[in-house]
Amino acid sequence: xxxxxxxxxxxxxxxxxxxxxxxxxxxxxxxxxxxxxxxxxxxxxxxxxxxxxxxxxxxxxxxxxxxxxxxxxxxx
Length: 76
Prior knowledge:
Elements: H1 8-28, H2 42-75
């Protein structure tokens, strides 16, 4: 990858995505039982995991666009 630093959009989508994934996996493992009654449901962890995957996947778009822009700048 020829990028010297990550675009801000990748950070803004990737960090919350990783946080959602970690929190969702912790909830699915049963670590949210004492925090709140809604966190006892298995659906709460599943929602966070799906949201995390969507955010991390969306974080790839700024990376791809920046890489294409870098390649376009090298060719021209």
